[in-house]
Design a protein that fits this description.
Nucleotidyltransferase, domain 5, five-stranded mixed β-sheet, alpha/beta, about 450 residues, elongated, 15 helices, about 45% helix
Length: about 450
């Protein structure tokens, strides 16, 4: 007999469906926040029922004996079974949330949820519960304290219930961090970092390093996430080396901002890959060195450098196009060099890294010339944690960022490639990743191949 979908699975399916829709990401995140509240409450109350009956959903009634030492806690198995759910509405500051409250039948004693107290539906404590579960909730003691503060001492959950929820979050993230990447082959690898306050002893925000990309099939993939003390070469080197150790192959193009540590590590770990410097970040750097009166004009001239729409539909990507854009860079420098030498110097610094994307398929240009692929998602994450100020621990910070990005990654758009673009990518793979082996000259006896005697 087919098992019915549990309320928890149904909520997760709703969250996944949101990120596959065409709606604005900010609106989607707001809905995910409300669904996240439902998911936490639903998970907690289902765990309460498991603890009350002494068995999980669909598990048969089998008593669990105590350990041989007698110190282990014995699981109490009660008679009775689950008998569906009834809707219960909880009011929050973001609107009412409906949760499926479990019903039981055949029990010898009445099941009373300590989570659904009479005062819960009249408070705005649900946001506190969600924040505690996803942010502070990775510590059992923190969750117990937060629940007591939000719902009152009588609504505190048992340690086993809290541990079940917290351990599931941590286990899911840990498994993701250790997963095999051998089957992940990338054309494009995006690298970026976002800063959060996550250590009590530190007064400054520290980076969370992130990697995501586009596979050779055009699919988006969230590759890696890790905390670091700074965006140093060593930190990025360790991060990227771990990805390689788990099987990640060199991409064709690495897209990043201008962080020196990131650039140095990327060139060391992926020496055969091309590197593209984010044009959006470079534009901000250049405009920041210009007076307010001229910023709009300088910004427009900057983007004209890389606008190839005037070349027509028959434009050919490759070295000639790169040289054309580099000549435009020289023209920009000549126009603005006397008035804003600092801005021009900023543009000319590492200028070769501004044009590698011009070697790739034309239909990919606007998405691979900058590293803002998930900039809005990072921004939304930072906005949501402002109410916290500082995370209680590193793992709580990384887990929250991962939870947001992992869900968002399921809604990222992939890349569509034309037949002409596919040929360009294949040629680049052969040239960068599988270059032909240079034959040794045979006219030099010392370099001639050695043949075995018959």
């Amino acid at each position: 007999m087919t098992r019915r979908v549990s309320p928890i699975q149904a909520i997760r399916a709703e969250i996944d469906a949101l990120f596959t829709s065409d709606r604005d990401l900010v609106e989607v995140i707001e809905d995910v926040a409300r669904l996240g509240a439902r998911l936490i409450i639903q998970t907690a109350v289902e765990a309460e029922v498991d603890a009350f009956l002494g068995r999980a959903r669909y598990q048969r009634t089998t008593a669990t004996a105590a350990g041989n030492s007698g110190d282990a806690e014995e699981t109490v198995v009660r008679p009775g079974h689950r008998n569906g759910h009834c809707p219960t509405t909880v009011k929050t500051t973001s609107g009412p949330i409906t949760v499926a409250r479990p019903k039981l039948r055949g029990t010898t004693e009445k099941f009373a949820s300590r989570l659904f107290g009479t005062g819960v539906t009249r408070t705005h404590a649900l946001e506190t519960l969600v924040i505690a579960s996803f942010v502070r909730g990775l510590s059992t003691r923190d969750v117990e304290g937060a629940l007591a503060d939000a719902l009152g001492p009588e609504a505190a959950l048992s340690k086993s219930t809290v541990s079940t929820i917290c351990q599931a979050i941590v286990a899911e993230y840990d498994a993701w961090c250790r997963r095999d990447l051998t089957g992940v082959e990338l054309d494009y690898l995006f690298l970026d970092a976002s800063h959060f306050k996550m250590h009590e002893a530190s007064s400054r925000a520290e980076p969370i390093l992130a990697a995501w990309g586009i596979t050779t099939d055009g699919r988006p993939v969230f590759v890696g996430l890790a905390a670091a003390g700074a965006e140093s070469t060593d930190a990025w080197d360790d991060f990227l080396t771990d990805l390689i150790a788990r099987g990640l192959k060199p991409p064709l193009l690495i897209i990043s901002d201008g962080a020196p540590g990131l650039i140095s590590a990327a060139e060391q770990v992926f020496p055969v890959s091309l590197r593209q410097r984010c044009l959006v970040h470079r534009a901000r750097n250049v405009v920041a060195k210009v007076s307010c009166d001229d910023q709009a004009e300088v910004k427009a001239d900057f983007w004209k450098i890389f606008d190839i729409s005037d070349l027509g539909e028959d434009v050919k990507v490759g070295q000639p196009l790169v040289e054309l854009v580099q000549r435009r860079v020289d023209a920009f420098a000549e126009t603005w060099g006397r008035r804003y030498p600092a801005a021009v110097k900023c543009l000319l610094t590492d200028r070769a890294s501004l044009t590698p994307y011009l070697r790739f398929p034309l239909e990919h240009h606007k998405r691979v010339r900058h590293s803002n692929f998930i900039e809005r998602t990072f921004g939304e994450t930072r906005r949501r944690v402002k109410v916290i100020g500082r995370f209680p621990s590193e793992i709580s910070c990384v887990s929250l960022v991962w939870a947001v990005l992992d869900r968002a990654a399921r809604g990222w758009r992939g890349f569509t490639t034309t037949s002409k673009g596919l040929r360009i990518l294949q040629d680049l793979r052969r040239a960068l990743l599988h270059p032909p082996v240079q034959l040794r000259p045979t006219d030099d006896p010392a370099l001639a191949p050695v043949t075995e005697a018959a």
